Amino acid sequence: MPPAALPLLLANEHDTEALAQALALAWAQHPAPRLLITLDGDLGAGKTTFARAFLRALGVQGRIKSPSFSLLEEYTLGIPDLQFKGTLRTSAYHIDLYRFSDPQEWDDSGLRDVVGGPGVSLVEWPQRAQGLLPAADLSVHLEPMGEQRQCTLQAGTELGQRLFRALPEGLKSG
Ligand SMILES: Nc1ncnc2c1ncn2[C@@H]1O[C@H](COP(=O)(O)OP(=O)(O)O)[C@@H](O)[C@H]1O
Ligand SMILES: [Mg+2]
């Protein structure tokens, strides 16, 4: 069994982006229908930086706005499906719950259906929806130390464990 939590030192923004990209590509190799990644850490910790790099690695083009005001930004992904030689179409949701406070909003805004349904969800400030969010496949915790980030990856499901295992050794020992 690989470890349930993996500490990583990310030296700079590039390292954070490389980690997000590696995890995105690991998922895209065998795209499970549903993926939930939570991102926590203070303002400026790099949550949006991680989410942007993850979405870019899955082919999202154009501007990737921070959802800090809109709560939710949605993207359409086209993932090359090597097994069936076609393209898997699915949605990606970038969610920021910083301004989320009223549990009633969880249903009203449709967030329950979004994170419970098919697609990839990247959720910043998950602690704002404690008890509402389903268990994350992977939780990413980011702690700033100057330009460096102390990062802890925690796998909550078998899928999360699989993404761990797929990380290049160079990243794991970083
Ligand atoms: N190692 C690093 N990883 C991520 N961001 C970093 C790193 N070092 C510096 N930064 C900077 O920190 C800021 C992180 O901002 P952002 O990703 O919006 O944070 P958050 O979404 O957590 O509030 C960016 O300005 C980025 O350039
Ligand atoms: Mg952010």
TrEMBL record:
Keywords for this protein: ATP-binding, Cytoplasm, Magnesium, Metal-binding, Nucleotide-binding, tRNA processing
GO BP, one annotated term: tRNA threonylcarbamoyladenosine modification
Top-level taxon in the UniProt lineage: Bacteria
Chief localisation class: cytoplasm
InterPro entries in alphabetical order: P-loop_NTPase, T6A_TsaE
Species for this entry: Thiomonas arsenitoxydans (strain DSM 22701 / CIP 110005 / 3As)
Entry's localization field: Cytoplasm
UniProt-recorded name of the protein: tRNA threonylcarbamoyladenosine biosynthesis protein TsaE
Example of a GO MF term: metal ion binding
Family membership: Belongs to the TsaE family.
Pfam families: TsaE
GO cellular component terms, semicolon-separated: cytoplasm
